[in-house]
Design brief:
Radius of gyration: 55 Å
Oligomer: single chain
Structural class: mainly alpha
Order of helices and strands: HEEH
Number of strands: 2
Number of helices: 2
Strand content: under 5%
C-alpha cells in the first residue's frame, strides 16, 4: 500500500464516521421534531377549550361590569335626588321650625319671669346665736 492509498482509506473512514455522526444527529433531530409535534398537538387540544372558557368568563365579567356601572349610575341619581330633597325640605321647613322654636323659647322665658315676679312663701327660720337653722330641723328637735 502506498501513501496515497492509505490517505484515501483515511479520508474514506473520516467520511464514513462523519456520515454516521450526521445520521445519528438527523435521527435524534427527527425524534425531537416528532415529540415536539406531539407536544404542540396536545397543547393545542387542551388550549382550545381553555381559551373558550376564558372567553366565556370575560363575557360574563363584562356583563357584570355593565350591571355594576348601571347600579352606580342609579345610586348617583338617587344621591342627587336625595340631596335635592334635603335642600327642599330644609328650605321649606327650616325657616318656620326656627320661628316656632324661637316662639316656644320666648313663651318659656315669659312664663318663668312671671313666676319669678310672684313673692315666694317666706321660709321661717330661727336664729340661734348668729346661726340660721332650717325649719325642717327645728321641727325634728321639738317633736
Amino acid at each position: 500500500m502506498t501513501g496515497g492509498e492509505v490517505a484515501g482509506i483515511l479520508v474514506a473512514v473520516f467520511w464514513a464516521i462523519l456520515v454516521s455522526f450526521l445520521a445519528v444527529v438527523l435521527v435524534r433531530l427527527a425524534q425531537t421534531l416528532r415529540a415536539t409535534t406531539k407536544l404542540v398537538a396536545d397543547v393545542t387540544e387542551q388550549a382550545v377549550p381553555l381559551l373558550a372558557d376564558a372567553s366565556a368568563t370575560l363575557r360574563t365579567a363584562q356583563t357584570q361590569l355593565d350591571r355594576v356601572d348601571a347600579i352606580a349610575t342609579d345610586v348617583q341619581e338617587v344621591t342627587s335626588n336625595a340631596s335635592a330633597l334635603s335642600t327642599t325640605v330644609a328650605s321649606t321647613f327650616g325657616g318656620p321650625l326656627v320661628k316656632v322654636a324661637a316662639f316656644g323659647y320666648g313663651v318659656r322665658r315669659a312664663l318663668s319671669r312671671k313666676s319669678d315676679d310672684m313673692p315666694a312663701a317666706e321660709s321661717r327660720r330661727t336664729v340661734i346665736v348668729g346661726r340660721t337653722v332650717p325649719a325642717a330641723r327645728r321641727k325634728k328637735g321639738k317633736g
